[in-house]
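Notebook B, p. 112. Complex prediction, attempt 2.
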Amino acid sequence: MKLLIFGPPGSGKGTYSSRIEDRIDVEHIATGDIFREAVKKETKLGRKVKEYLDRGDLVPDELVNKVVREKLKEKDDFILDGYPRTVDQAKFLESFTDLDALIVLDVTDEIIIKRLSSRRICRECGEVYNKLFNPPERDDICDECGGELYQRDDDKPDVIKDRINTYENRSEPVLDYFEGGIPFVVNKCREANAPIEEMVDSIMEQLRKKNLIS
Ligand code: ADP
Ligand code: ZN
């Protein structure tokens, strides 16, 4: 099963993908995670992408395409998160793989801003929390590993606005590009604190109805 999860920053792509990964046997592949890891480890790739991530800009297509091509290689099962984010990336992806379905997360700008500004991440294990909607038991400490929680630089208010603009201008056209070509599963969310499991249930149910999973 080759799935793509698509939506604005803060729509829950990463959160839902890891739950879906647990329920059906697909590997969660997130370009944002790959880049952040590279920046943290100060690899060659990390040095190239850092300035884009800090500003909330898109990493150039050529570079992202190369990374994804390498990562997907001969894989038959995956859920792609954060790629493609431009029509050119979508064309490149289609040139070497066929997707089974696209999961669209439809959320309002208001929810995005609320969620992103309160998002916190574990420095050690990468677990994602939300100070308002999914807080850790102890303030700023990871429930899983005791690591320290931090706020991503690109989750600060100024950068959030730029990321929403970039999404609308560069990424939304990807939906038009795929429309009609592959099945769409649309998940509408109108509350910032919508229960995660319910959202995932509804996505799974739609995949089942479309006979994409049993
Ligand atoms: P979010 O979906 O919350 O905006 P991600 O973790 O998916 O965040 O991505 C973080 C950053 O990584 C983006 O703002 C961008 O700089 C870079 N990035 C990730 N995926 C891509 C992509 N497909 N094309 C270009 N840049 C990307
Ligand atoms: Zn942790």
